[in-house]
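anyone seen this seq b4? input:
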Amino acid sequence: MMNLVALIAATPTPEVDPAETWYSPGTVGFLLTFFVAGSALLLILDMVRRVRRVRYRAEIQEKLAAEQQSKETD
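predicted toks r here
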């Protein structure tokens, strides 16, 4: 048992220079990032459209209510 521990401890580990390694997400990573960015853009545009529609509806309802109120007071 002692010899096994000595062999494992004595085995040198190869040193890897981080400057020589190259990490890349590849084509799949690029496509996934592109898909996520495109989806986020579409969701943002859709949300802006919906918020604008709700705001316009509220403005029209306020104008109609003010018009109705002015007709009632006349």
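The chain has two helices and no strands. The first helix runs from residue 2 to 10. kinda curious what u guys think
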